[in-house]
């Protein structure tokens, strides 16, 4: 079953500047797709467009079907039920994605109550279980505000919130960029295990070829808002066709070689 179908997607900024041009792809239930490219390549804008979360002034054209519902130009009242239940997003910077004035436990309780109709003791148990699932089983985390915990703990909390509604599709938009290297590896492993355990579809967005290759089966390489190459991870890594993709692969291999010499 096709969960997300994107056809000829375009996104323009004020003044008509194209941020994404003629992008098409399908993502079936349980499958994993990576979008990779440098900053400004259009990959994060794509994640916002497919969930109907584009900022003011940005205009989307083309077609995006999320669980059969038209997102581009679709009525907001039809899109709200899709967020959380069908698709959830883990953003790059958890400190800005989380509400700074609300305790972590309460932020997690809201989607649990809204989407799973939990109340009272059942809701409290579900909050504890959701935090434990992302290895945040310290009771103080639920009572803490976002600024009172570490960056890695904030991102784990954000993942718990995104998964609390049991979505069919998880969109991870640069989920490790704001973290140090050790914590990055922990978060990638956590996401990999949770997506596998729940059988979710995954749209993983990053500039890091090694991370995307480890997390996904298929890749779309974006440059200046255009998909310049696509294929399986093995195809793209072994025989890149576009010069930009070839440079990404060379850079990743050079970095691996440099780290191996240490």
TrEMBL record:
Q: Which residues form a coiled coil?
A: none
* Annotated ABC transporter domain residues: 4-249
Is Membrane one of the keywords? Answer: yes
Taxonomy, superkingdom: Bacteria
Does this UniProt record's set of keywords contain Transmembrane helix?
Answer: no
Q: Name one Pfam family in it.
A: ABC_tran
User: What CDD domains is this protein classified in?
Assistant: ABC_NikE_OppD_transporters
Which molecular-function annotations from GO does this UniProt entry contain?
ATP binding; ATP hydrolysis activity
Specify where it is mainly localized.
membrane
Q: How does it sit in the membrane?
A: Peripheral membrane protein
Keywords (alphabetical) are: ATP-binding, Cell membrane, Membrane, Nucleotide-binding, Transport
CC annotations in GO: plasma membrane
Question: Any idea where this protein resides?
Answer: Cell membrane
Enumerate the PANTHER family for this protein: DIPEPTIDE TRANSPORT ATP-BINDING PROTEIN DPPD (PTHR43297:SF2), OLIGOPEPTIDE TRANSPORT ATP-BINDING PROTEIN APPD (PTHR43297)
Q: Which family does it belong to?
A: Belongs to the ABC transporter superfamily.
The protein depicted here goes by the name Peptide/nickel transport system ATP-binding protein
The opening ranks of the lineage are: Bacteria, Bacillati, Actinomycetota, Actinomycetes, Micrococcales
